[in-house]
Write a structure and sequence with these properties.
5-stranded antiparallel β-sheet, single chain, mainly beta, 1 helix
Length: 141
């Protein structure tokens, strides 16, 4: 599924690190359909403080696309076991469209690159939903 909109404006700077938002908007996803994406972040390593969506969604973030592909068939009811490269998994609902991470999640692309693999699932009953996901991050390197 192609990305219809992607906004990343990370700028590495010395001194105090600043919060930045990565906004990802998928094309229309059928109920139960997923979008598997590689997202440029501008950082090799960063912290995720918050994840939010505009629709009922399951969001998974991986070290790389190989881990993402190996985990794509796992249901929400099944726990990730072993070396699956899953760094974050969250489910949003009507009541909870924002997930504040505490503790925060540190994401490091392996092999080293400035992109991450993310899977966004439409778990709503809407026949077609364009899902916007926002990651509030702080770049490390």
């Amino acid at each position: 599924m192609p990305i219809t909109s992607l906004n990343t404006n990370p700028t590495a700077s010395s001194g105090l690190r600043t919060r930045q938002t990565i906004t990802i908007t998928t094309g229309g996803l059928l109920a139960g359909q997923s979008a598997k994406l590689l997202i440029p972040t501008g950082y090799k390593t960063f912290e995720i403080l918050q994840v939010s969506t505009n629709a009922l969604s399951r969001i998974r973030i991986y070290n790389n696309a190989t881990y993402q592909i190996n985990d794509e068939g796992r249901s929400m009811e099944t726990e990730a076991i072993g070396d699956v490269g899953l760094l974050f998994e969250g489910v949003t609902s009507n009541a909870y469209s924002i997930i504040n991470l505490s503790p925060i999640t540190i994401v490091s692309a392996i092999p080293v690159s400035e992109q991450i693999a993310i899977t966004i699932n439409n778990i709503s009953s809407l026949a077609v939903a364009s899902i916007t996901t926002e990651l509030l991050i702080i770049g490390i390197e």
